[in-house]
Amino acid sequence: MSSPSNQLDRHSLPAHVAIIMDGNGRWAQNRGMIRLLGHKSGVKTVKKIVTAASELGIKVLTLYAFSTENWKRPEQEVSGLMSLLKSYLENELSTMLDNNIKLRCMGRKKQLPEEVQHVLNSSINKTANNTGLVLNLALSYGGRSEITRAARNLAKMCAAGTLHPDEITEDLLEENLYSAGLPDPDLLIRTGGEYRLSNFLLWQASYAELYITETNWPDFTQEDFHRALTIYQERQRRFGKTGDQLKK
Ligand code: IPE
Ligand code: IPE
Ligand code: MG
Fold it and tell me: How many structural domains compose the chain?
């Protein structure tokens, strides 16, 4: 029997893959380790999956790294996650430059510690002219907060008289999301086995194909990633139409 990666059609890949990287804490706790070691191990998976996506020629990879709700975790875990984020960004800049990866982020950047903001901005600037994979990190990100921010921007334009409420369209709202300019995710993967969105890409994921695996993020491999892509390729995306309409 051939492995799923053999069946992967490299010519019909999703343009945008988004991942809810969940299960780090449980992975560690199952091994009698502290949760932070699960996050540390999760960083290794991030490196592997970014490389895999870049090699396949996927255009956009959005990774949910920290939610607006994750600030409610114990202070020690939050600060541990922030320092892992900082060292990840510092260590990976050369790989991003070597592999033509362009870094972006979405979320309330100003809430991040200043030293994280600094290295994040610096890496975003240094990779700005790269034309390969767009690596979009969701940091202090929440879908509701993103949509509220877009609504506030549009309301300000209306109040200033530069926009009429009747001119507000889906496209215009989209231009005011953090994801402006990116295609919607075609495939949304969640590791760790929970069947929920946890405030991720609420607007953008309206027609994303969902793939949920029980595998915890630190155990997720390149082969698992290829399997998710293969299963995505077997789906029929109808976008409201009938299956017969698509065959024509
Ligand atoms: C995901 O793993 C990483 C973040 C949310 C930052 P978790 O830390 O949520 O792991 P579980 O769900 O507790 O196992
Ligand atoms: C979602 O995971 C957020 C990230 C992966 C960054 P959570 O572990 O925070 O989600 P819930 O709380 O179980 O819904
Ligand atoms: Mg979790």
Answer: 1
CA distances from residue 191 to 88, 103, 215 in whole angstroms, order as listed: 20, 23, 6
- Is 169 part of any domain? yes
In the predicted structure, residue 33 carries a pLDDT above the cut 60: yes
Share of the chain above pLDDT 70, in %: 98
Give me the half-sphere count of Cα atoms (radius 13 Å) on the Cβ side of residue 138: 29
Among 9, 70, 184, 199, the one annotated catalytic: 70
Instruction: Quick: pLDDT tens for 119-178.
Output: 999 999 999 999 999 999 999 999 999 999 999 999 999 999 999 999 999 999 999 999
Domain residue limits at 57: 14-237
What H or E segment, with its residue span, contains residue 212?
strand 209-212
Rounded to whole angstroms, what are the CA distances from 213 to 37, 90, 196? 21, 30, 12
Query: Any catalytic annotation for residue 186?
Result: no
Query: Which residues sit with their C-beta closer than 6 Å to ligand 2?
Result: 20-22, 64-67, 69-70, 194, 196, 198
Query: What is d(CA 124, CA 203) in angstroms, rounded to the nearest whole number?
Result: 24
Amino acid at 85: L
Active-site choice (22, 24, 136, 216): 22
CATH number of the domain bearing residue 18:
3.40.1180.10
**For 117, how many CA atoms within 13 A lie in the half-sphere containing its CB?**
9
Q: How far is the C-alpha of 44 from the C-alpha of 16, rounded, in Å?
A: 21
Provide the β-strand partners of residue 137: 63, 105
Residue 67, helix vs strand vs coil:
strand
